[in-house]
Design goal:
This protein folds into 2 domains: 26-124, Sandwich (Immunoglobulin-like), CATH 2.60.40.10; 137-236, Immunoglobulins (Immunoglobulin-like), CATH 2.60.40. Helix content is 8%, strand content 56%. It contains 1 helix and 18 strands. A 5-stranded mixed β-sheet has the order 2-9-8-4-6, with no helix packed on it.
C-alpha cells in the first residue's frame, strides 16, 4: 500500500517537474478597448507575452482576424523568464461603429498552444465644422479687350462680381492706373451670394496705339484684399 502511494506521488512529482521545466506562456492581459476613435485613425496596443516555464518558448505563428489589423512580436523565442512585446495595430480607415478584432498567437506551450488576444473600439465619423470663410470676392472675368477704337472715343465695359463668402463683402476702394480710366461700383456692400457690378470707362483721347489699364478693387476679402482688373484697347488715329 505504501509502495503504491509512493509510486503515485512520484508520478505526480515527475509530471509537475516536467510541466515546470517545459515552456509556459503567460500574458498580462488578453483584451484591450481603445474606446472611441475617429474614422481613419491608426491605433496600436502592446500586449506582453512572457515565458514562465523552464524551457525555450517559441512563438510559431501570429494571425490577425482582419486585414485592417497587424501584429508583430519583438521576439519569437523566449528563454525562461524573458518577455516579448506584441504590438497590435488597427487601421480604422473605412470602418464605422463598434469593432472587435482578434489576434491568435500560437506557441509550443503544450498546455496553451493558442492564445486569443482581443482589441475593441468604436469608430466614429468626426463632425466637420463649417469653415468660416469670411467675405470672398469673385469675378467671372478679370480682363476685357475693347479691340480697335478710334482715338477720342469713350468706351465702357461692366465687370460682374459676386460675394461667395459667408460674411458681407465691403468694397473699400477702387483705384485706376490712369486718369483716363474711371470705375463705378454698383454697391459697396454685398451680402453672401449677392452680385454686384463695376462699370469701367476708358477715354481714348490722346491715347494712340496699344493701351492697357488696370483697376484695383480693395475689399475686406482677407485672402485676396486687392483684386486687379485689366482693360485693353488698340487706339487708332483718325
Amino acid at each position: 500500500m505504501i509502495r503504491n502511494i509512493l509510486i503515485v506521488l512520484l508520478s505526480l512529482s515527475i509530471t509537475a517537474f516536467a510541466q515546470l521545466m517545459g515552456p509556459k506562456v503567460s500574458v498580462q492581459q488578453v483584451e484591450y478597448d481603445f474606446g472611441n476613435i475617429n474614422q481613419g485613425d491608426v491605433v496600436n496596443h502592446t500586449f506582453v507575452l512572457s515565458n514562465n516555464g523552464g524551457d525555450l518558448l517559441k512563438i510559431t505563428d501570429v494571425r490577425a482576424s482582419c486585414g485592417c489589423t497587424a501584429a508583430n512580436p519583438t521576439k519569437r523565442e523566449l528563454k525562461p523568464g524573458e518577455s516579448s512585446n506584441l504590438v497590435v495595430t488597427f487601421n480604422s480607415k473605412g470602418r464605422k461603429g463598434p469593432q472587435v478584432k482578434t489576434v491568435t498567437v500560437t506557441t509550443n506551450d503544450p498546455d496553451k498552444k493558442d492564445i486569443l488576444l482581443t482589441i475593441k473600439c468604436n469608430v466614429v465619423i468626426p463632425v466637420v465644422k463649417e469653415e468660416k470663410t469670411g467675405a470672398r470676392i469673385f469675378f467671372p472675368e478679370t480682363q476685357h479687350d475693347f479691340g480697335k477704337v478710334q482715338e477720342g472715343t469713350k468706351v465702357e465695359y461692366t465687370f460682374k462680381f459676386e460675394n461667395k463668402g459667408t460674411e458681407s463683402l465691403i468694397v473699400k476702394d477702387v483705384k485706376t492706373s490712369c486718369g483716363c480710366t474711371a470705375a463705378v461700383v454698383s454697391n459697396n456692400t454685398l451680402k453672401p451670394g449677392e452680385v454686384g457690378s463695376i462699370k469701367v470707362g476708358f477715354d481714348t483721347k490722346n491715347r494712340a496705339g496699344r493701351n492697357s489699364k488696370s483697376i484695383t478693387i480693395v475689399s475686406n476679402d482677407n485672402k485676396e484684399p486687392n483684386r486687379v482688373l485689366m482693360i485693353y484697347a488698340e487706339v487708332q488715329k483718325n
